[in-house]
Amino acid sequence: MATVPFGLNFFSSVRPDQKTGEQYFDEALRLSELADELGYSHVRTVEHYFRPYGGMTPSPIVFLAAVAARARRVRLVTGAVLPIFNHPIKIAGETGMLDCISHGRLDVGFGRAFLPEEFDAFQRSMDESRERFEGGIEAVRRLWTETDVVYEDAFYHFGPITSSPRPVQRPHPPIIIAAVGTPASFDWAGQQGYGLMVVPYISKFESMQANLRRYREAFTAAHPDHPVPRVQMSFHMHVADTDAQAVAEATPQMEQYVAVFKDSASVWQTRSSDAYPGYAEVIRELDTMTMERVLRERRAFVGSPDTVERLLRHAIDLFGEIEPSLSVLWGNMPYEAAERSLRLFASEVMSRFAVPPAAPGSPLAASKRR
Q1: By CB atoms within 10 Å of each CB, which of 18, 32, 60, 369 scores lowest?
Q2: pLDDT for residue 338 is more than 50
Q3: Burial 212-241 (b: 16+ CB within 10 A, else e)
Q4: CA of 270: how far to CAs of 48, 53, 231, 281, 283, in Å?
Q5: Model confidence over 176-196: pLDDT tens digits?
């Protein structure tokens, strides 16, 4: 098995009366710097608004710029920016700037958004989300790579414009598509040759497996000369010396995560959109998402190092080549517990997923010389 990269994922689910923004970002940036030192592959955060569910990071670009100033090796991942709420000229200029600041370490994840209250606040129609999403990505890609861009769709008409600054990476920073459960999103990401990021937390694993097959098959069919990228897959993670300690520390945080998720997503019980088929049913999964179910169905990596290793191997068996994106500062997790978990995972688990160098003269070493 090839070396598995592990990244760090910040998706806030803390309430403002528990941690101020100042405290949350102090902790997140300290953990990001530590992750860089310990050999994690990326730092990622999301774009959400208003609510405790993700709302600490209305701008992933601002947070990642701060990470870039503190960490020298990890890749920076927007997980994700939302074209429906942002003009493509602004996305292209700010991500180009961040790619320059980080010396070419940026991966740009794009998402469609899925919380009705955010659409309402920005006065955007959910029925426009796919068209704005696909058009926004195309506009940003052209602004990164072309000069005197003239662009027109149903929502934007601009140009000629040459975006500045130009990204370091050529032809442009890697593009990653955030997908949840709509099969067409997985097909489209593969056809375009983009990377993929998913959150399997409330998905039926059989459906997620099917959608990942769709993505990989579509990618291979459209781009037979390119390897399919590892899928970035988000998981809650908490490691402690024993299973009992890890579960005891993680349970109140999981309960809070589910509670703030339900607060933001509950409007789906009275809303529907043809652009988001099945979302009401998916959100109803939260009503039964207890810690007991999470552990039983292996939906999070919680336990001793040995237990977490087994959980990871199970996820890889289910989903294939993935790059786990691990959330350690979730719920109202104390900083000390999050740092301990991050260090313990790096020292006791991460190395078990690296292939040791072959001994001289071994068949593996010989095969690498051919």
Answers
A1: 369
A2: yes
A3: bebbbebbeeeeeeeebbbbbbbbbbbbbe
A4: 21, 19, 33, 12, 12
A5: 999 988 888 999 999 999 999
**Scanning the structure block, which residue is given the tokens 């890890």?**
246
Distances from the Cα of 262 to the Cα of 29, 86, 92, 198, angstroms: 27, 26, 33, 19
Q: Running DSSP on this structure, what letter comes out for residue 307?
A: H
* Tokens standing for residue 174: 């890697």
pLDDT digits (tens, 9 = 90+) for 126-163: 999 999 999 999 999 999 999 999 999 999 999 999 99
CB 343 within 8 A of CB 305: no
**What DSSP string runs through 175-198?**
EEEEE-S-HHHHHHHHHHT-EEEE
Segment (H or E) for 258 = helix 243-265
3-state secondary structure of 231: strand
| Helix%, strand%, coil% for the chain, nearest 5 | 50, 15, 35
Strand 157-161 and strand 149-152: the pairing is antiparallel
The residues that bridge with 152 in the sheet, in sequence order, are 157
